[in-house]
Specification:
With about 325 residues, the protein is of the alpha/beta class. It is about 45% helix and about 10% strand. The protein has twelve helices and eight strands. The two termini are about 25 Å apart. The relative contact order is 0.10. Bound molecules: iron/sulfur cluster (SF4).
Length: about 325
């Protein structure tokens, strides 16, 4: 991997005192743990478009499909100003080489999901997207995006962090030759990771790579990345992971003693039943991958999709 991952983030999550009330929403995991692997690019849409700190609080009003960004007390409408600013800022962000974005949940500007949108009678529906977050996701639909609230869920956290590391490796691939031969290598090393998210996308991507010569280089890269990111957005469940673990075991099953086979099967069962986290069967499998020096498995990012220090697989 070439250097730290660059991620956009809502400024208040890094402790910037940019909120309407002059406060912040510092997220310790993001700043102090994930921050060790990330160069953050902070963005505060409301302040960067010229509003002061403190300022009047805002909310979304109208329908979830066409929300307006308005101040709560005086009803001043900032939608057009925000969209105009966002268009310019997104052009700058495009050059920032980002691998993803962490948005502030529930914000009418920065929230990416389930933001309150008030109808004419003042009744909220939790179906909106913040104005800036919406513009960002429309412009960069394949970039991994999450909000800090959802990242408290261990499964969603692991999923997002896995995706940003895959995206970084994809960028590294594009920066090198980006050739078809390299695409095949990239795909081969990600096969089991993809399988742990979606058998459907595993098949689609496999076929795409096998037929790579039928496409122009730009075309195949676009198709590949689109299906890759679509597949990885689906969470890796215990059932899907168990399928991958058994698939891996198949590579050296014949070389295990009856006792070793029994031990592995018991650990898979414990994982399947939810008694131990994924790291437990994976640690034992990794031991055998090394012992038998299995080249295909040794190259799989599934065994190490992100730094072990983040301990993400101790909780899924
Ligand atoms: S939620 Fe977004 S707009 Fe609001 S303070 Fe944080 S970064 Fe600024």
């Amino acid at each position: 991997m070439n250097g730290k991952i660059r991620l956009g983030i809502s400024s208040c999550l890094l402790g910037g005192k940019v909120r309407y009330d002059g406060g912040h929403k510092l997220d310790h995991f993001l700043r102090d743990t994930l921050g060790n692997y990330v160069d953050w690019v902070p963005v505060c849409p409301e302040v960067e478009m010229g509003l002061s700190v403190p300022r009047e609080a805002m909310r979304l009003v109208g329908t979830p499909a066409y929300p307006r960004l308005k101040t709560i007390r005086t009803g001043k409408d900032y939608t057009d100003r925000m969209l105009k600013w966002a268009k310019k800022r997104l052009n700058e962000i495009e050059k920032e080489d980002l691998c993803g974005f962490v948005f502030k949940s529930r914000s009418p500007s920065s929230g990416m999901k389930a933001v309150k949108v008030y109808d004419e009678s003042g009744v909220p529906r939790y179906k909106g997207t913040g104005i800036f977050a919406g513009a960002f996701m429309e412009r960069f639909p394949l970039l991994p995006a999450e909000d800090e609230g959802r990242l408290n869920d261990p499964v969603l956290r692991e999923n997002f962090i896995e995706r940003i590391f895959v995206y970084q490796r994809w960028k590294d691939f594009l920066k090198s030759t980006g050739s078809i031969a390299q695409l095949i290598t990239f795909h081969t090393k990600h096969k089991l990771l993809i399988l742990s998210h979606s058998t459907k996308h595993y098949s689609i991507l496999g076929r795409l790579v096998a037929d790579a010569k039928r496409y122009k280089t730009d075309e195949i890269r676009t198709y590949y990345l689109t299906y890759l990111m679509e597949g990885l957005r689906l969470t890796a469940t215990i059932r899907k992971n168990t399928n991958v673990l058994q698939h891996m075991m198949g590579y050296f099953k014949d070389r295990l003693t009856a006792d070793e086979k029994q031990e592995l099967s018991e650990i898979f069962e414990k994982y399947h039943a939810g008694f131990v986290p994924l790291i437990v069967p994976l640690t034992l499998l990794t031991h055998y991958v090394r012992k038998f020096d299995e080249p295909y498995l040794k190259g799989q990012y599934y065994l190490m999709p992100h730094p072990a220090e983040l301990m993400l697989r101790n909780h899924v």
